[in-house]
Automatic annotation (TrEMBL):
SUPFAM superfamilies, per database record: FAD/NAD(P)-binding domain
Keywords on record: Monooxygenase, Oxidoreductase
A Pfam family assignment: FAD_binding_3
Domain FAD-binding, residue spans: 10-315
Statement: the UniProt record of this protein carries the keyword Oxidoreductase: yes
Designated name of the protein: FAD-dependent monooxygenase
A molecular function (GO) term: monooxygenase activity
Organism phylogeny: Bacteria, Bacillati, Actinomycetota, Actinomycetes, Micrococcales
Length: 378
């Protein structure tokens, strides 16, 4: 029987979590997929991430869960500490991907990325590195891309998965742009002791970091995050010395972590920006997904999860029988409440990071409720 699938060929622009997961999910449904990324080569080093259960649920559905769990460290709770090292509380993390999956895993980004690249390649996705989308045009039931090498090609859909710094976003008629969150973050990959199973520590004063946390990514390694003001002070310190300074008042396990950081530690600082596009994510056959249209500070670690949920659901919609415009409108209407819930609760948490003494500040409750709301499948 002939299928009436509205999408048979796709150009995916961007090879992060969003672009790769969209490519895999479309290819698994019989779509011919080409993925371009402006990076000349995939990065082999990178940061740690906390991947929540609802992202693991997507990884299970696209058939990579065994590989993902093999490179990650599963956690089902988070320990909260006072800055002096005393335990404040042990909080179970909601299993947002269902009871058969860990609540979260810690893993290194390049390890996860490589699993997705391998899966996409095994499904016949053509990956072209060093190519950028320069412009596009809608032509009724197809869209034409012009890439940075000047070539022009026609597709049933072009997916813009360029991340928060997307250049194509305004060309889709989207007027929202990325904005400062008021927060900055240092991240470092370093060593841990076997008994150090992860946690977040809160300060007693307004000196140094807003908070510091770490997540195991292997038997002997973890990644550390240090939340702080968005501008680096002009104090002449090297990056690793600045991280040590920000962590100076954090003790217990954090003494070990601070001392494990040195000139050779892989670390970086960035100002955290955010964006939320509530209106349509597409113009005709060109559709933006993932951090191109929603990105928030990593305060409940839902970034990648929301991206891969977009990707799988989008592929399901546009490969069903039906009319493309209706499918995209229905997809968008279904995604918005869930993504907005994550954005609203995260931005409230960001506000309280900057004003912890606010009379209504109750981050534990908001975090718990935000994650619990994600337990039902999207
Ligand atoms: C400090 C920090 C910590 C975070 N921690 C976590 C965490 O613990 N857990 C979590 O789930 N999420 C976390 N996130 C969020 C997570 O990293 C993102 O949600 C996710 O990586 C976004 O994926 P993406 O594919 O949409 O975009 P990206 O990962 O930004 O990928 C976009 C890709 O598009 C390419 N590209 C851009 N423009 C073009 C173009 N015109 N043509 C071709 N290619 C192009 C880029 O080279 C890039 O490869 C964190 C984010 C930050 C900033």
């Amino acid at each position: 029987m002939e299928t009436k699938m509205s999408v048979r060929s796709a150009l995916i622009v961007g090879g992060g979590f969003t672009g790769l997961t969209t490519s895999i999910a479309l290819a698994q449904r019989g779509v011919e997929v080409t993925l371009v990324d402006k990076a000349p080569a995939w990065a082999r080093v990178g940061h740690g991430l906390t991947i929540q259960g609802n992202a693991l649920r997507v990884f299970k559905e696209i058939g990579v869960i065994d590989e993902v769990l093999a490179v990650g460290q599963a956690e089902n709770a988070v320990t909260l500490y006072f800055a002096d090292g005393r335990v404040m509380a042990e909080m179970p993390t909601p299993r947002t991907g269902g009871d058969d999956l860990p609540a979260t895993i810690g893993a290194l980004r390049p390890d996860l990325h490589e699993i997705l690249v391998r899966k996409a390649e095994s499904l016949g996705v053509e990956i072209r590195l060093g190519f950028e989308l320069t412009s596009f045009e809608n032509d009724g039931d197809t869209a034409t891309s012009v890439l940075s090498d000047g070539t022009t090609e026609s597709w049933d859909v072009i997916v813009v998965a360029e991340g928060i710094k997307s250049q194509t976003r305004p060309k889709l008629g989207i007027t929202e742009d990325r904005r400062p969150s008021g927060l900055g973050i240092w991240r470092a990959v370093t060593s841990r002791l076997p008994e150090m199973t992860g946690g977040i520590a809160y300060p007693f004063d307004d000196q140094g970091a807003f908070k510091v946390g770490y997540t195991p990514v292997s038997d002997s390694q973890c990644y550390i995050f240090v939340l702080c003001p968005p501008q680096r002070p002009d104090n002449g310190l090297e990056g690793w010395q600045e991280v040590q300074r920000l962590m100076a008042n954090y003790h217990g396990q954090f003494d070990y972590l601070r001392e494990s950081i040195g000139p050779d530690t892989f670390l970086n600082f960035q100002e955290i920006e955010w964006i939320f596009v509530e209106g349509p994510w597409n113009r005709g056959r060109v559709v933006a997904l993932g951090e191109t249209v929603h990105a928030v500070p990593p305060l409940i670690a839902q970034g990648a999860a929301q991206c891969v949920e977009d990707a799988l659901l989008f592929a399901e919609y546009v490969t069903a029988d039906g009319d493309f415009d209706t499918q995209v409108a229905e997809f968008h209407a279904r995604r918005i409440p869930r993504v907005k819930g994550v954005v609203d609760s995260t931005m409230l948490l960001a506000k309280w990071e900057l004003d912890p003494g606010a009379p209504d500040a109750d981050p534990g409750r908001v975090m718990g409720q935000a994650l619990a709301a994600l337990v039902p499948a999207p």
